[in-house]
């Protein structure tokens, strides 16, 4: 049963808003996708990230978060898988930055969208800190007597909706710079910067504690 407590709900929205706009690897992922391919890949990356958050939120509401917190081995496996993925993406961007975007056409665009979506999704699915974040953050805003599972999913959906709204602002803001960002030297520089950011967050994840 879902119980709506307006003070708790407003407190959650305020706290989630601050966390949503705090720059991180997700923000870097969306901005890079926009710079590299325009709004389409940007939205694809955003949707992949939000789907990953939603999967973690639903899993935590159903009890997986408690397993991550109680089983260090599972947490470590997921954490280092996420670290390896971020570092792999970052090293590839550093060593093989692009000098030009793919030529126009339906097939290349679909491929770019799929790649952006996959990167966004895997980045969040392979980050166990999101699961631990949900299991420690969401319960503070669940009213007494409410169903933890139902209320947790509802709050996760609100957080995902806010995240998607923030990404919409980022994607819209990137549009005026789109032509400038497509210059060969800018493309290469952005790939290298994004690669460095992904490696940094990968290393940070590797040394993080539960």
Write the SSE topology.
Elements: H1 6-21, H2 25-37, H3 39-61, H4 64-70, H5 72-95, H6 106-125, H7 128-137, H8 148-174, H9 184-206
Note the total helix count.
9
The chain-level mean pLDDT equals: 78
User: How many distinct domains?
Assistant: 1
Number of strands: 0
Distance between the termini: 30 Å
Q: What's the main sheet like?
A: none
Q: Tell me the β content.
A: under 5%
The low-confidence runs, each spanning 5 or more residues with pLDDT under 50, are 102-108
Helical percentage:
over 70%
Q: Any idea what the radius of gyration is?
A: 18 Å
What does this protein structure show overall?
The longest helix has 27 residues, at about 150-175. The chain is built from nine helices and no strands. The chain has one domain (about 5-205). It is an all-alpha fold and about 210 residues long.
In short:
The chain has helices at 6-21, 25-37, 39-61, 64-70, 72-95, 106-125, 128-137, 148-174, 184-206. The chain is an all-alpha fold and 210 residues long.
Quickly list its features.
210 residues; mainly alpha; globular
């Amino acid at each position: 049963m879902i119980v709506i407590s307006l003070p708790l709900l407003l407190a959650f929205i305020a706290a989630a808003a601050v966390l949503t706009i705090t720059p991180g690897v997700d923000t870097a992922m969306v901005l890079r996708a926009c710079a590299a391919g325009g709004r389409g890949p940007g939205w694809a990356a955003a949707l992949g990230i939000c789907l990953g958050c939603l999967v973690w939120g639903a899993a935590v509401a159903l009890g997986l978060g408690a397993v991550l917190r109680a089983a260090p081995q599972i947490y470590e496996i997921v954490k280092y898988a996420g670290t390896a993925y971020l570092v792999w993406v970052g090293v590839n961007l550093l060593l093989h930055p692009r000098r030009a975007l793919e030529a126009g056409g339906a097939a290349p665009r679909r491929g770019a969208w799929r790649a952006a979506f996959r990167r966004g999704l895997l980045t969040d699915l392979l980050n166990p800190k999101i699961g631990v974040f949900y299991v420690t953050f969401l319960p503070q805003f669940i009213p007494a007597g409410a169903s933890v599972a139902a209320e947790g999913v509802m709050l996760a959906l609100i957080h995902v909706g806010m995240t998607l709204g923030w990404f919409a602002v980022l994607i819209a803001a990137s549009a005026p710079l789109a032509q400038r960002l497509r210059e060969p030297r800018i493309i290469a520089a952005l790939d290298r910067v994004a690669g460095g950011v992904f490696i940094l967050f990968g290393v940070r994840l590797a040394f993080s504690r539960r």
